Amino acid sequence: ARAGSFGRGAEAGQASTSSSPPSPSTRSFGRGRGSSSSSSSSGLGLVVPRATQMELKDRIELLIDAGSGELFEDEGNKATQWKYSGVDERHVGTPRAVTEEEKELVDFMGGNYNRELAKLYFEKRPVAVLVKFAKMMQLGLKVAYEWKRQETLPEDERTRGKVLRRAINELGPAFIKCGQTLSARGDLIGYEAAGELAELQNNTEPFSTEEAMRNLVDSFEWDGPIAPGIRGPYFAGDESKCQREDYLFKELSREPIASASLGQVYKGMTWEGERVAVKVQRPEILYSLLLDMYVLRLGLVALRALWGSDTDLTPIADEVAAGVWNELDYRQEAANAQQFEFEHRFLPYIKVPRYLMEYTTERVLTMEWVEGKKLGQLELPQQLDFMAKAIEASGAMLLQTGLVHADPHEGNILYAPNGDLVFIDFGLVSSVHPRLMEAFASGVINLITMDWPGFAQDFKDMELVPEQFMRLNEQKGAWEACEIQDFTLMIGEVIEKAKMDDFGDLVACVQQMADNYKFLCPPYTILLVRTFATLEGLAAKCDAEFNMYEACLPYAIRRGLAPTTRQGKKELRDTLINAKGEFAFENFQESLDLMRRMEEQLEQGEAVAEGQAPDDEADPESTNITNAITGRAPEIVGSLVTAPEGSTIRKIMQEADTVAFVDKVLSETTRDVQSKAISTLASSLQERIVSSGTLGKPIKLSKKPVSQFSSKALWSIVGKHAGSLLAAGPKGIFLLLKGLFLVTKIAVFSSVRAVTSACFHVIALLFTSLGKASASVANKLL
Fold it and tell me: What DSSP string runs through 10-60?
């Protein structure tokens, strides 16, 4: 129902009575037009979590636990639900069907992706499946033929890469996404193919602007002109008579500035004067995309039969299909983006574009325009900074927040002029269960420390092997139960012979062991493997020495000390508190040793950099990506003291026997430890005195989120131990006085050093400024 010659008018909202999910297009477009709906036009709203009553503040147990459960009263912006003005959130994540074919599919699926229903739906349509499968085989054979035929040609005469890219484009969005992932792994598919597939990140084959504009106005139910100079398919009036309120956008580019697998982007401006990127979905994509995923699923079934494997690989396709199904509703992408930004707010260099929900529907996504460069457009120092931040963010995603951007190819991360990382395209986001995060963290630590029994148990906890370890009996040709010790011997033997620098090395080791031991492939692996394989491939382009495992180590240690599952908390307590109620420092020693190891590696790297000759080829400003992250390990792990997730370790500190705990801490506070504490504190104070922008820190971080009650909990811990020391007699009083002396000494020395360093720094800046001024005057006189 189209009302009026220039636009829908106020009556249009009354005409929108279809049974399909409600859309933001039924709301006001920011200028008081488009609908008579009573809903607010404020955009994306957040529901404030319920405030927890604190009548029992005086109870130490509650103070210690504060920040681990629902006690987020100081974080009122936490998104616990997604409420769109004018939109029933129950329908977010349901694609809008356009054609009769798509409507039939969505109705058959009940609005949500269901693997069994999808299988049943396409089993009844064998002709469509065979046609697609035949096309895939035809193009695959063509690429294989051209690849082999051009093998002997000089590289500058080869066109086989373009043949591969065109074939993938022709096969459709599902195959394009696979190509985008593989483009980052030249080490696996060859750099010739990877280089050509990299074009898929921003330059997939676009569809016509005419189709895009029709999809846009249909999605908004708009029959007026789209923007000055862009009439739109349903406008038949005289544009010269149009007023500003008759246009949807103030400006919109005539052609797309970028094209992707599911849509293409136009640059525009709203009537509020905000520069925006407008992403329009490819028309009639739903049916073909689900068909592609079904064909890929059949391919995995055939692959399983070809390999003679007992592992069912089809859940991988189902996991991707479910993600892509949700991705086709652009409102879900906006929801994912806001949740991602909130969960990673402790990394201030992460930026997420703001989404304009009043200009967003299931098939049109409008976000603020952001400036930035891709990795390949940066100089080496910026590339290293880019990747250090991206890898640290990935470690935080997997091991701290559990919310993973599952499509981090080079086109989806930009480097802003101020050094921020701008993440875009949140259609595919994976959530990791806390139990798996704890298993991943343990796996990273056990791999680096070569604790093979622990690593074998991690495989079990990550659901990569059956509950009962299984080994192949070659004589019988069947799997038989075996003990964890057998698996441990094999995994140690295989990994110790391998060069474990990157993720691919571990995959190769697993493939080798799969000849003898049974492995599983849980659905979560596909998106996580895609994420980290992509980032690792990007890092390798600018740092040949990059090591993914060591880069993730600080967050692995942090996660190990901050479990959130009941079992994880119990295991940590049993590890750190012995039968006598004393803090078991010997069990904490492994983490301390790893921290020292990372610190020593960083110091060695800095020593090498300082001793480098001026004419060396390496850029003096460059730094090793791994060291840039591991060098911050004390900060990453130490911030647990005040972080919400640090409640478990705070409670353990509270429970430990006071005299033994304090005695051990003071005995470990050697002169070397005191010197490092003074240096660290002095650097922190100097940054507060002098602008941190002039100190040249490689990764600038602001204060991490702090639990509302952590300071009270820490004072409770200090008060409890101080009281216990006073009650312990002469030894306790001696320990208390010794502790106060050391604290005072560190505070005084660090303050003096910070003030002195700041004064010298200011004097140096003053002389530099005077020198520049003198040189400028001299040049003018000459």
Answer: TTHHHH---SSPP-GGGS--SSS-S----S--S-EEEPPPPPPP-TTTT-H
Any idea which of 34-43, 87-96, 325-334 has the lowest mean pLDDT? 34-43
Sign of CA dihedral 429, 435, 439, 442: positive
Grade residue 308 by pLDDT with cuts at 50, 70 and 90.
low
Hey, how many other C-beta atoms are within 10 angstroms of the C-beta on 553? Answer: 28
Ordered DSSP codes for 402-420: -EEES---GGGEEE-TTS-
Specify the amino acid at residue 247.
Y
Look at residues 550, 532, 545, 529 and name the one whose alpha carbon lies nearest to residue 448. 550
Element (H, E) at 276: strand 275-281
**Residues 78-101: what's their mean pLDDT?**
53
pLDDT for position 642: 74
CA distances from 325 to 92, 113, 330, 578 (A): 11, 7, 11, 50
> Given this model, what pLDDT does residue 169 score?
83
Task: Tell me if 33 sits within 8 A of 7, measured CB to CB.
Answer: yes
392 touches 386 (CB < 8 A): no
Matching residue, tokens 């990059």: 546
Cα–Cα distance for residue pair 411/565, rounded to 1 Å: 36
Could you tell me which residues come within 8 angstroms of residue 742 by beta carbon, excluding any fewer than 6 positions away?
666, 669, 674
Instruction: Output the pTM of the full model.
Output: 0.68
d(CA 166, CA 722): 72
Listed in sequence order, the residues at least 6 apart from 334 whose beta carbon sits closer than 8 Å to its beta carbon are 44, 355, 357, 360, 365, 367, 426
Q: Return all residues near 215 (Cβ < 8 A) that are at least 6 apart.
A: 280, 281, 282, 283, 363, 364
Position 370 scores a pLDDT of: 92
Taking 60 as the threshold, does the pLDDT of residue 474 lie above it?
A: yes
Residue type, position 52, single letter: T
